[in-house]
Amino acid sequence: MKIKFSSLIIVAILCSCSNEDDTVTKATLEGDWKLVQMSGSIPDSETTGSDMEWQESYRFFEDGNFLKSRETEGSVEGLTGTYSFNEDPRSLELTYGEESEIIGSCQSDLKENLFFSSNDVLSSTWNQCDGPSLNYEKI
Predict the structure, then answer these.
(1) Which of 5, 11, 89, 106 is in the most buried spot, having the most CB atoms within 10 Å?
(2) Residue in 36, 89, 83 with CA at minimum distance from that of residue 64
């Protein structure tokens, strides 16, 4: 009887232990995210750092607003909008206030979608329609 009870306690302890919560929350999203990797549909087309065609970043604010900026050949363009955080699947829908070439989207509206490929990497969905694959890391 003691062995069964001890085994039951050990199983209960093991089941109650869990890994750290790896869920991305709105609080961990807030801050600056920088473009770190770009690739096209051609094999071995991955570029990083200053070799990328442009430099880009997002800044997410607590109030649901964001700023996106892109630097291309010394020229900087910025754009603002609002975002909604979705927990399942872990993703963001960005809505811009005006049209711009820096919106990376398969749609013709003012929306852009990003998803969490891991807790510290945001990825664009633009590559689903022949745009580049873009990965961002929190800085």
Answers:
(1) 106
(2) 83
Q: Please give the model's pTM, rounded to 2 decimal places.
A: 0.80
How far is residue 88 from each of residues 11, 85, 97, 123, 131, measured CA to CA in Å? 30, 9, 25, 16, 24
Q: Which helix (H) or strand (E) holds 84?
A: strand 75-87
In whole angstroms, give the CA distance from residue 124 to residue 136.
8
CA gap 125, 88 in Å, rounded: 16
3-state class of 3 per DSSP? helix
Contact between residue 78 and residue 93 where contact means Cβ atoms under 8 Å apart: no
Residue position matching structure tokens 């711009």: 100
The residue ranges of every structural domain in the chain are: 23-138
* pLDDT, tens digit, 9 for 90 and up, residues 11-47: 444 444 444 444 567 678 999 999 999 999 888 899 9
Residues contacting 40, CB < 8 A, separation 6+: 132, 133
Angle at 91 between CA 87 and CA 92, to 5 degrees: 110
